[in-house]
Design goal:
This protein is an all-alpha fold. Helix content is 79%, strand content 0%.
Length: 439
């Protein structure tokens, strides 16, 4: 389909609109995800609700369990109501859930709020990725997805500043009231975000999708064939012959990777406080850590293009493990900041490289199923990571927290490395340019 310069300009403006709106939605997603870790040192020091470290770990796991549920049901709901409506619903849900946390007077109510917020957070990210993939300019899909993922870490940076600015003068509840403000953004999404082209095609509204695509110079996605039976067949194919070994290696690597990501995201400020740093400094580490995450997301794809996603995945986890372990050593502030930054660079994109590796090593027919189930199994690690940190602190072994997370990084390095070495399937030409970015 040829297009005039004016049509291409309209297409660029539409892409900017969709990516911009989705970027803001994911920014609020990151703010809500990281805010608990940012206020946690204060909650423990003041014994809010009589909170103990093991209860704090449980609360952190409630949100990630909710994310697991949200991620698993997002596809089904999106297929029924549309991706646009689902994004609006997810933003509304995690905003209202943060309000429930802000007014809670018990651990039970606070935990319910975090669980509901997790459902919204888990459903939003894959839906936003699908939206920007639909409207990304031709040949720019991977770059646009990488750009979208920077919003998640920008939200983490914002959460640290919200905690630093509000906790002492106003109180921890104010931080969660800030997380309610995205509720005002939901009507903006409903008004200005176009519906997903993939959804329109899947619902048989091909003419409507074609009009949108032609008007804005984007491609109409191919109609999906087959239904649930094909999905289950594709899942079964992951276990045929000796493929089950490969599949389990990917799943275990993903488990360790997301244990590391969400364990560190939840407990970084608290563990740094346990190492003797002031609360302000501990929250500054959150800012630096997420700045590293932004840089890592931007460079991971380029590194994978040049050296191969499997090699980068294994190397990234090794460097992550080294960085996380070094955080258990009290060093000069400048050195510690540098280590935190580099750890953020590698940790936050190491898991992405697992997805890229699975995508590269999978057949085209089963690629979506392979990546989806690798992500889903990994999310059990996301639930386990915050719980593990709480148990270590509760048992008086908080100084082992960084070591435990470093071991998780090493295990992912080993498993993804073995999986890459075992694979005898030739990688399709150009496949290493695919970047599947989703926590």
């Amino acid at each position: 389909m040829s297009s005039s310069p004016s049509t291409a300009a309209r297409g660029s403006r539409l892409a900017l609109l969709v990516v911009g709106l989705c970027w803001l939605a994911v920014l609020f997603d990151g703010l809500d995800m990281f805010i608990y870790g940012s206020v946690l040192p204060h909650l423990l020091e003041t014994r809010t609700f009589g909170l103990t470290p093991d209860q704090a770990g449980d609360l952190g796991s409630y949100a990630t369990f909710g994310m697991l549920v949200g991620a698993l049901v997002a596809g089904t709901i999106a297929d029924r109501v549309g991706r646009k409506k689902l994004m609006v619903a997810c933003v509304t849900l995690f905003s209202l859930a943060s309000g429930l946390c802000a007014v809670s007077e018990s651990v039970a109510v606070f935990g319910l709020g975090r669980t509901l917020a997790g459902v919204g957070l888990g459903g939003l990210l894959p839906t936003a990725i699908s939206m920007v993939s639909d409207y990304a300019p031709r040949g720019r899909g991977a770059i646009v997805i990488g750009l979208l993922m920077t919003a998640h870490h920008a939200g983490g940076i914002l959460s640290a500043y919200v905690a630093k600015w509000l906790i002492d003068p106003v109180g921890w509840r104010a931080a969660f009231w800030v997380c309610v403000l995205p509720l005002l953004f939901a009507p903006v999404l409903a008004r200005f975000l176009p519906e997903s082209l993939s959804f329109l095609v899947a619902k048989g509204r091909a003419e409507e999708a074609g009009v949108l695509a032609e008007r804005y110079d984007v491609e109409v996605p191919a109609a999906r064939t087959g239904g649930a039976g094909d999905r289950w067949t594709n899942l079964a194919n992951l276990f045929r012959g000796k493929e089950w070994i490969q599949t389990l290696l990917y799943w275990v690597a993903s488990f360790g990777g997301l244990l590391l990501v969400y364990g560190v995201a939840t407990w970084l400020p608290t563990l740094m406080r346990a190492e003797g740093y002031e609360l302000g400094s501990a929250l500054s580490f959150v800012v630096v850590f997420n700045l590293g995450g932004i840089v890592g997301m931007l460079v991971a794809g380029r590194a994978a293009d040049r050296f191969g996603a499997p090699r980068i995945s294994a190397l990234w986890f090794a460097l992550t493990a080294a960085g996380v372990f070094l955080l258990s050593v009290h060093m000069p502030m400048t050195v510690t900041m540098l280590v935190v930054f580099l750890t953020g660079v590698f940790l936050n994109s190491a898991q992405t490289m697992i997805y890229a590796t699975v995508s590269i090593r999978s057949d085209a027919d089963s690629r979506a199923t392979a990546v989806g189930w690798t992500s889903g199994m990994g999310r059990f690690g996301a639930v386990f990571g915050p719980w593990l940190g709480g148990q270590l602190l509760a048992s008086g072994h908080g100084d082992w927290g960084f070591t435990a997370f470093a071991v998780a990084g090493l295990s992912s390095m080993v498993f993804i490395g073995i999986a890459a070495l075992r694979s005898s399937r030739r990688e399709p030409a150009g496949s290493e340019r695919e970047l599947v970015a989703a926590h």
